[in-house]
Amino acid sequence: MGLLVDGKWLDQWYDTKANQGKFVRSQSEFRNWVYPESQFDENNPQHFPAEAGRYHLYVSLACPWAHRTLIFSKLKQLEDIISVSCVHPDMLENGWEFKHDSDFTDPQFSIDDPLHHFDFAHQLYTQAKSDYSGRVTVPILWDKQRNTIVSNESADIIRIFNRAFNEITGNHLDFYPAEKAKDIDQINDRIYNTVNNGVYKCGFATTQSAYEEALTPLFDTLDFIEHRLETNPYLLGEEQTEADWRLFTTLIRFDAVYFGHFKCNLKRILDYPNLNAYLKRLHDVPHIDETINLQHIKRHYYYSHKTINPTQVVPIGPSTLFR
Ligand SMILES: N[C@@H](CCC(=O)N[C@@H](CS)C(=O)NCC(=O)O)C(=O)O
């Protein structure tokens, strides 16, 4: 675990001292956008054109933020036009690595940097910006032509995937329709702060009060969603939206990791009948199971976070995620 300072790698754990023991997530740095031909402005350096074969997506199969982008790659049938590879689940002194390891092969995604054959993800960041300072995170959407990072923000990447390549793929499914945009943004905001990032605030808290301050709103939101799902199959009614998929990647990790490792243990998702059925409903959408690698997920958290789990022992359970 570390970060880049002026392009140099430093091995250092999250610093919570300045924030009374609270974990504060830093902002993503690369926020460019891919546009379809009709909206692309070649004079704007933040614009990248939608083209088949031009982009590569680097993910971690363990990471809930990267998982969103993999899901959108499946839902929007982008697999043939955007290549994907993943990092090794262990994130230790060198951060994310492309270390080949036959114990962690995935049937779909190889651990590899097929473009540069770099050993570490931080080399991608310094390739894109030689004096980059900040965290080295996944997902990373890479442009093979300009040899740089388009975006390292999953919330943006899934919106790019939702629209930019429609004319190329012919897939016009819309998970962020204009008429629901305001409601999606509103529920995303609550779920991001209290659930997606809320589990990290619990797990990375280094004081009792910072932990408790995060735990209460996390379970308030889960209770709120449980109630909402009594009458709706999805968060915003009858149709799946982006908001459901953003929540899904946290829920699928909850009982296996966040409940124990991050101390989010008031209840399991298995204890909420509606949330559990909802999780199964989303899990059963065609091709979604191909994006879930519980081995990478459990290994990453329990083995990489030595400050939380110094023995690095990875638990065997849970025996089931669904009723
Ligand atoms: N805002 C980013 C956050 C991504 C993120 O934090 N990814 C984690 C993996 S789960 C990471 O790479 N962490 C490395 C670090 O913080 O050093 C996004 O949503 O894309």
TrEMBL record:
User: What InterPro entries does this protein's entry cite?
Assistant: Glutathione-S-Trfase_C-like, Glutathione-S-Trfase_C_sf, Glutathione_S-Trfase, Glutathione_S-Trfase_N, GST_Omega-like_C, GST_Omega/GSH, Thioredoxin-like_sf
Instruction: Spell out the CDD domains in the cross-references.
Output: GST_C_Omega_like
Instruction: Please report the stretch or stretches of sequence annotated as the GST C-terminal domain.
Output: 177-304
Look up the domain of life of the source. Bacteria
Molecular function terms from GO: glutathione transferase activity
Binding-site positions, glutathione? W96, R135, V136, T137, V138, E153, S154
- Active site per UniProt: C63 (nucleophile), Y200 (proton donor/acceptor)
Presence of keyword Lipoprotein: no
Per the UniProt record, the site (Lowers pKa of active site Cys) maps to Y258, Y301
Question: Which cellular component appears as one GO term in the record?
Answer: cytoplasm
Keywords, sorted A to Z: Transferase
Q: Name one Pfam family in it.
A: GST_C_2
Q: Does the keyword Transferase apply?
A: yes
PANTHER family named among the record's database cross-references: GLUTATHIONE S-TRANSFERASE OMEGA-LIKE 1-RELATED, GLUTATHIONYL-HYDROQUINONE REDUCTASE
Q: What is this protein called?
A: Glutathione S-transferase family protein
Organism from which the protein derives: Marinomonas profundi
